[in-house]
Amino acid sequence: MRRQPAARGGRTPGRRAVEPRAGGRSGRAGGHVPAGLQRAAGYAWRLLIIGAALYAALVLLGRLALPVVAVFVGLVVTAVLRPVADVLGRRMPRAVAVLFTVLGAILLVAGLFVLIGETIAGEWTRLGDEFRGGLDRIERWLEGAPFHIQPSTVAGLQAKFGAFISAHRSTLISTAVGEATRLIEIVTGAVLALFCSVFFIHSGDTMWQWAQRQLPADARRTWARGGRAAWRAFAGYTRGIMIVAASNATLVGIALTVLGVPLALPLTVLEFFATLIPLVGSPIAMAVAAVVALAAKGPVTALIVLALIIVIGQIEGHVLHPLVMSWAVSIHPVAVALSVTAGALLAGVVGAAVAVPLVSVLWAVVSELRSPQPKV
Question: Under DSSP, is residue 329 helix (H, G, I), strand (E, B) or coil?
Fold first, then answer.
């Protein structure tokens, strides 16, 4: 039998060559997916998984809000008091140094609140008289230029306010009972935070080393770098914001005392704690002080207190933050504003206070892990 000659180009007769499709892939017509769409789809499902994980974490943290906040406050206390314990620990046993440091801080805070209580109790009668006179001055001010509000309108507003209080008395009472329950939770969280802070101050390094030993051996060095960067950022931010808050409170206390505004000490303490929430805390506290000044001293003093909001804001933004916070963290004001807003929407006041240090820690960890690893 004669063999058939090979076809031109080395192809065997009767066997059809398969031509490759466009893009180097074979399959049905129209089955090719562009490479850009494939990458976008890959990022999309990964982002969906990350988003679902973050949502689950937020839900879990919401369910465990009390211990989570207690641990956060414990870390704040540790960042503030640990340097003091370290200094005392050079001259006495570590446990005794921690005991002296914590007890001294408790006595200081307790003494401050006792002083505030005595100040309010001592000024209560005079303050009531000033507030009643202040309300009369506000009414006369509203009735005069430039508002020219009719006295009947002011009396009608007072009557509506009294009617609202009477109609919603039961709701207000139930809200007060609910706040009393929340007060018990706050006391419980404070005790838990104090308990955690004692151990964090005494043996926080040992606890972190134990946690690292539970990780795989090849991941310990990375976690150690990230943990050191996180603690440096958190401690630096905490100490820096405490210095800024104390400076703001000192300026406010001096100004309110000079202006003769009643409750200057409680308003100063309010300013200190409000400044712990960046951007929005200090103006809110100063607005409260302006209301007190308006009721007690009249509109001129209230306007001066309102002007202090701008002055203290400029000092805080252009002097204190660059000098105090630049060595700890460096976050753009836009990032701070977005962080505070997102934290407030997710978890209220607690979220607004926690948002900026959390973002600072995350950014510090990312920056540390992106930098070249030092050679051993």
Answer: coil
